[in-house]
Design a protein that fits this description.
With 172 residues, this protein is of the alpha/beta class. It has five helices and eight strands; from the N terminus they run E-E-H-E-H-E-H-E-H-E-E-H-E. The two termini are 15 Å apart. It comes from Parapusillimonas granuli. Keywords: Molybdenum cofactor biosynthesis.
Length: 172
């Protein structure tokens, strides 16, 4: 984490949004729409957006390509983190991380508990970084994306948020 420097202008980050789903498409991807719009409203650029089936290797390919792309600083994924036999987001992405942001999943589940009670146990939301790219993985429901964005991610991508944030890592 980096300390906010009030003398520097806010950083506009280059972000990518990946929806992981076997049923969503461009016409009904409300969670991807929400995340893309929220990034724009916060002054960031959504430079890539895609929908990927829940296949472990397809997810890993998209995320690996985006991690290797110097034009992407933040990746937001939604979907594939619930408690089911076919969830694959964690299995696909965790091995790619250089560092985990452990508190993200913990705080997300705390915030979710306040909204949906013990059902929050079924979320494997997590975050980390790889090749200087921040990666936040959250459930696919638009409500869960809103909880993660409003409760955690928006402030942490804001380079002016004090006392510290992830956005400041990208100041020149």
């Amino acid at each position: 984490m980096s300390k906010a420097d009030p003398s520097k202008p806010p950083v506009s980050l280059k972000c990518a949004v990946l929806t992981i789903s076997d049923t969503r498409n461009a016409g009904n991807d409300t969670s991807g729409d929400y995340l893309s719009q929220s990034l724009a409203e916060a002054g960031h650029a959504c430079v890539r957006r895609d929908i990927c089936a829940g296949n472990l290797y397809q997810i890993r390919k998209v995320i690996s390509d985006w991690i290797a792309d110097d034009g992407i600083q933040v990746i937001l994924t939604n979907g594939g983190t619930g408690f089911s036999h076919d969830k694959s987001t964690a299995a696909a992405i965790l091995p790619l991380l250089d560092q985990a942001i452990t508190g993200f999943g913990e705080l997300f589940r705390h915030l979710s508990f306040q909204e949906i009670g013990s059902s929050m146990l079924q979320s494997d939301a997590f975050a980390g970084s790889a090749n200087n790219t921040l990666i936040f993985c959250m459930p696919g429901s638009t409500g869960a994306c809103k909880t993660a964005w409003e409760g955690i991610i928006r402030e942490q991508l804001d380079s002016t948020h004090r006392p510290c944030n992830f956005g400041s890592l990208y100041h020149a």
